[in-house]
């Protein structure tokens, strides 16, 4: 499968999708198989890390990594995500996800042995959503935007994976349904520090 999406690192599939299509402009469409997810239930149980994910080594230093995400929502928790991943028990995802009520919304999950799941804002009518990961020294920040210009603050956190190398990338999931198609485009990487988490830039 082609994985050239314009990022300055070599990307590879940690878990392969059911289907994948890459365009010359860097647009990537991924189909997640049925019943695939990334979640470590804080109430107990084994980690579920079956969702297809395309990952590459996180570059040194501060940076910003973003993409516009469109999801063919069908079932609860269908989602397209940006991902920070060290190992099955240390990772974080910023998701554009279908709620059980049928709305598209911003969801973030920070996993340090178990998952901390938090809902953000609702997105009108399943419109495209921009997602962004920023690294700031030892910390990470998640932002989301409905227009790619004004960014809403979502989370600020540390992952602390205990020495495991961190990778970044894209993920698609279909935890309850028969599959989910996600399109990532306008994928961008900037080796610059995000100066203010809450000023909308």
Automatic annotation (TrEMBL):
Pfam families given for it? DUF1349
What InterPro entries does the annotation carry? ConA-like_dom_sf (IPR013320), DUF1349 (IPR009784)
Q: What is this protein called?
A: DUF1349 domain-containing protein
UniProt organism field: Plantactinospora solaniradicis
């Amino acid at each position: 499968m082609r994985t050239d999406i314009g990022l300055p690192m070599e990307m590879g599939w940690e878990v392969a999708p059911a289907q994948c299509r890459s365009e010359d402009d860097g647009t990537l469409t991924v189909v997640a198989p049925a019943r695939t997810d990334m979640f470590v239930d804080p109430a107990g149980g084994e980690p579920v890390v079956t969702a297809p994910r395309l990952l590459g080594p996180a570059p040194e230093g501060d940076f910003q990594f973003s993409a516009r995400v469109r999801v063919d929502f069908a079932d609860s928790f269908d989602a397209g995500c940006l991902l920070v991943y060290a190992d099955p028990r240390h990772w974080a995802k910023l998701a554009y996800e279908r709620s059980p009520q049928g709305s598209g919304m911003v969801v973030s999950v920070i996993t340090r042995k178990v998952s901390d799941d938090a809902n953000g804002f609702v997105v009108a009518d399943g419109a495209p959503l921009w997602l962004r990961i920023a690294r700031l020294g030892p910390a990470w920040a998640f932002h989301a935007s409905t227009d790619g210009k004004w960014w809403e603050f979502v989370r600020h956190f540390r992952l602390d994976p205990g020495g495991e190398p961190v990778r970044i990338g894209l993920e698609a999931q279909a935890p309850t349904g028969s599959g989910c198609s996600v399109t990532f485009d306008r994928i961008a990487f900037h080796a610059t520090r995000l100066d203010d988490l809450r000023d909308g830039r």
